[in-house]
Specification:
Blueprint: E1 4-11, E2 21-29, H1 32-46, H2 64-75, E3 79-87, H3 93-96, H4 99-111, E4 117-124, H5 130-145, E5 149-156, H6 162-180, H7 186-189, E6 200-201
Parallel strand pairs: 1-4, 3-6, 4-5
Antiparallel strand pairs: 1-2, 2-3
Length: 203
């Protein structure tokens, strides 16, 4: 029996340039369908007829009204949000040169904060290479088991998974705060952030 569903997405990149921070977010819920319905409601109430046919909603290409609508819905949902923000300038060059291993390690740091239990974790598909996905799954499942977390892990395209689209909005809001010092959107969901005040590492 699954205790929790966890949907994870990222914002920014681990390259030497681009945003100042790399952010990973996880949304932990018992009812994944309610989370997904946020996207359905947004399409029905905030998108014009032509735009309603878009394959997916993304925070980066949405207007402020849509971003706030999604985030306000999240703020009223029974969920826990975990945020990990990394200031890239503080990552040692050796780690930066091993981006896959660094990404896997950061996901572990974030997810081990989730309480013990059985979880189904859905991740926005990052690795197209099957061997990299399997390596990620083995590593994360093994490390989380040491914290009493029994995790099954699935990688999905966000256009086919509405809850992942919600996670995209949350990750975008977090990156706005840490990379651009704009916390207008982040404040909307602060009441759901379980690790508030400890989101940054190497800051």
């Amino acid at each position: 029996m699954i205790d929790w569903f966890v949907f994870m997405d990222e914002s920014g990149d681990l390259g030497r340039f681009g945003t100042s921070h790399f952010v990973i977010c996880a949304i932990q819920v018992r009812d994944d369908k309610r989370l997904g319905r946020i996207i359905k409601r947004t399409r029905e109430r905030k998108l014009k007829k032509k735009l309603a046919q878009l394959p997916e909603l993304k925070a980066s290409s949405s207007n402020p009204e849509i971003r706030k609508f999604v985030l306000r819905r999240v703020s009223t949902l029974e969920c826990r949000i975990y945020v990990l923000a990394v200031e890239k300038s503080r990552i040692c060059p050796k780690l930066m040169d091993a981006q896959n291993r660094l990404y896997n390690w950061l996901c572990r740091i974030l997810c081990q904060q989730i309480g013990a239990g059985t979880i189904k974790m859905i991740i926005d598909k990052k690795y197209n290479n099957r061997f990299l996905r399997e390596d990620f799954n083995r590593y994360l499942a093994r490390e989380l088991s040491r914290h009493g977390i029994n995790a099954s892990i699935e990688h999905l395209e966000s256009h086919s998974c509405p809850p992942l689209q919600v996670a995209d909005f949350v990750a975008w809001a977090a990156n706005r705060k840490f990379s651009w010092k704009d916390d207008e959107y982040y404040r909307i969901i602060e009441n759901r952030i379980a690790n508030l005040g400890t989101e940054s590492i190497w800051a």
